[in-house]
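Q: Two folds, back to back.
A: First:
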Amino acid sequence: MNNPDTTRRDEIAAGLTEVERRIAAACAAAGRARQEVTLVAVTKTYPASDVRLLSALGVAHVGENRDQEAAPKARECAGLPLTWHFVGQIQTNKARSVVSYADVVHSVDRPRLAEALSRAAAGAGRRVTCLLQVALDDDPGRGGVVPSGVAALAEAVAASEGLVLGGVMAVAPLGGDPGRAFARLAEISADLRTDHPEATVISAGMSGDLDHAIAHGSTLVRVGTALLGRRKPFVR
């Protein structure tokens, strides 16, 4: 009888090999070095045991999108050499909890959230890297600051205690051309770097469109399904 832990490790290892192959191929096609792109394994709905297996396989960055799941999972995996990314929408009353474990927050889209994160980070003696989530469509439910509001929000984040302006993040519009969306994000990133040259991160690309994102300058891809497979929702 197979050891279920061994079987799951083999599944994740196979997924990681294929995702790495895709990232390397996309980098080669774009004339970019593989080390220019960081893989963030999005572990939402997957148990802490999967995070431990990913870490053992050499993955150093993991992402979560719900604080009520992420906070206990981060505590369970506190001894692992991981950088934690929060990639979902954040209510301001969750800022303190998110800041307690997240090293990078991808979804800063309004000054009020930046203020809440700053208070929490300063109070905890932490420095949190913030990415500005940019809305590339007209769906307010997906979050994001409109492109015309990026500059003002960037100034607010850059001036906030405990926060570091890292760059931008976006999700390709549903049913749209991801290449066109990510090309627009690259333009927004270039404009941002005019005043904030240190804000070099472009978080773009998921399981279905990471190739397009890398072609347009993504430095960080957020991959869940292609890496970990389709699983039942994780319930604590």
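A: Second:
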Amino acid sequence: MTTSDPTRILLADDHALVRRGVRLILDSEPDLTVVAEADNGAEAVSLARETPVDLAILDIAMPRRTGLQAARELSRLQPDLRILILTMYHNEQYFFEALKAGACGYVLKTVADRDLVLACRAAMRNEPFLYPGAENTLIREYLERLRQGRPLPDRAITEREEEILKLVAEGYSSKDIGDLLVISSKTVERHRANLLQKLGLRDRLELTRYAIRTGLIEP
């Protein structure tokens, strides 16, 4: 890509109306163009492999894979790809997870018309973008953790367990999950048992509630 070419964007959100609105915002700018759209995280990863893109904008809550799960995989596959997370959530836990997943920005959907273009340009300059007000929230959280001697929040479960938890909560059977992740049904059952034990939960219903609380799926 030369300096005069527009930034090629992959846009992933499971709501078609949101994608349409975001695309209108982006395509109205001469230096930005949406070249691919996905309605789930797994499709976003697949499209990024097939289509030359400079920037991925990922909704945080999507089927099959969340934006954070997709961001982690894309960061491993394409370290030079810039990633922005698009979200409804004012949540410092998600923000820290987004940074650890390789994202360089975190944009609230409620103000996307104001902030998204700025975030795209900041990302392409390799600069971080925080939604207005995030700095104060995050600095307060960081200072409070330092005062209490606590580290930054850790992941309660592994990436693979998170993948399986999300699919279980979305209603997939062990066989379906095994087919999607190219592992055996027995391995899926073992991961599921580990999840129940780690999280102190009893069944699929409680796993689903946990997935909703942690933003892996929407209620």
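Q: And?
A: Strands lie at 7-12, 32-38, 55-59, 82-87, 105-108, 129-130.
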